[in-house]
């Protein structure tokens, strides 16, 4: 899968690497600012008890 993604991206290897880094940063941004806060409203880790 990663090889297919690498072949689809345009440009020389350094441009591809830059595109992959930007895409990874965008995914992490989306997770931290949209997905994780939404999930934290559903899951309450403070209410977990172990006996």
From TrEMBL:
Keywords: Membrane, Transmembrane, Transmembrane helix. The chain crosses the membrane at residues 13-36. This is DUF4175 domain-containing protein.
């Amino acid at each position: 899968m990663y090889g297919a993604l690498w072949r689809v991206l345009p440009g020389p290897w350094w441009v591809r690497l830059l595109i992959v880094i930007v895409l990874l940063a965008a995914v992490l941004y989306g997770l931290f600012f949209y997905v994780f806060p939404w999930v934290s409203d559903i899951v309450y880790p403070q209410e977990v008890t172990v006996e």
